[in-house]
Each structure stands twice: as C-alpha cells, then as structure tokens.
Amino acid sequence: MSRLLPYPILSACLAATWLLLNAPLSPGNVLLALLVGLMVPAVMLALRPPSVRVRAPGILARLAVIVLYDMVRSNIDVARIILGLRGGERRTGFVTIPLDMRAPFGLAILSIILTGTPGTLWVQYDSDTGCLLIHVLDYTDGEEWVRRVKDRYERPLMQIFAP
C-alpha cells in the first residue's frame, strides 16, 4: 500500500484540486484526477524528500494568523494603489535582505509567503551569502522591509524548523 500511495494525503488533495479546477465532473476528469493523484506522489517518492519536523506548532499557528492578516492588508493596499485612491508618489524597488535561516523548508515557506502576499515578490536567493532579493510594489524604506521580513517571518520560521 505504501508503494501505491506513498503520500495518501497529498494524493487526495491533488485529486480534489484537479476536480475543483476542471469542473464539471466527467468520467475523464475523474480518471485524470486519479492519475495525477497517483503519479505525482510516486515521482516525489523517487525524489526522496527529507521528512519535515515542526518544532513549534503554536508558533506555526501564530505565523499563519500573521500571514493571513498581512495578506488581507496587502490586498487592500494594492487595490488602493491600482485604483488610484492612495495619494502621493509610489515607487517600486528591490530590497536585499540578509537571512540567517538556512533550513530548506523554512526558505520554501518564506518564498510562498512573500510571493503570495500582494505587492511583494521573491526574486532571488543566494545560498552562499544567505541574501534574499525581493521586489516591492510600494517601496518606502529598505530597512523597514528588512526588519519586517526578519521579525514577522524569518524568526518564527527559524523556531518552527530549528534543527
């Protein structure tokens, strides 16, 4: 059973996502959903990803609330910019953030947070220096962005994925 379904939750989620994105239900879509749900986890098994150990689930829950709040706030801010409701001059810019975190799963989650939040985009990460380059739609102060990313996201992620 483990060879057929190495990651059963992932299989179920992929199949469900496929069906939701390819509505209406048809026999062909169900068959394709089952194939995707079985094939993608089999490929992941071949890649042999290391297991993840979450060290602080309470901090993870708090981080989820912070990210949700930041995403809602950023959606409102970006909407104001696009609709021209925000006075003043808007500048875009790039910010280099020196990261202390090296955990691959923590970096992956950070990339999802930054790219998923409207107005910011993960551009490049240099694993040799630990420097992250992000693009910001509403660039104000680079040091403010460095503090925001490090305090709100990096520090909790380091506690969650600490070795």
Q: What does this 3D model show about the protein?
A:
- The protein has helices spanning 8-21, 27-47, 57-83, 104-116, 142-160; strands spanning 93-98, 120-126, 131-136.
- The mean pLDDT is 90.
- The protein is built from five helices and three strands, in the order αααβαββα.
- It folds into two domains: 8-47, no CATH class; 57-160, no CATH class.
- Helix content is 58%, strand content 12%.
- The chain has a three-stranded antiparallel β-sheet.
- The two termini are 31 Å apart.
- The chain is globular, with a radius of gyration of 19 Å.
- The chain is mainly alpha-helical and 163 residues long.
- One of its GO terms (molecular function) is monoatomic cation transmembrane transporter activity.
- This is Na(+)/H(+) antiporter subunit E1.
- The chain crosses the membrane at residues 30-47, 103-123.
* Rg computed from alpha carbons, rounded to a whole number of angstroms: 19 Å
| Major sheet size, sense and barrel closure | 3 strands, antiparallel
Poorly predicted residue ranges:
none
Quickly count the helices.
Answer: 5
- How far is it from the N-terminal to the C-terminal residue, by CA? 31 Å
Strand elements, count: 3
Helix content: 55-70%
Please provide the ordered H/E string of secondary-structure elements. Answer: HHHEHEEH
Share in β-strands: 5-15%
Physical arrangement of strands within the biggest beta sheet: 1-3-2
Mean pLDDT: 90
Task: Supply the number of structural domains.
Answer: 2
The best one-word shape is: globular
Structural class designation:
mainly alpha
Membrane topology: Multi-pass membrane protein
Subcellular location: Cell membrane
Keywords: Cell membrane, Membrane, Transmembrane, Transmembrane helix
Organism: Methylobacterium bullatum
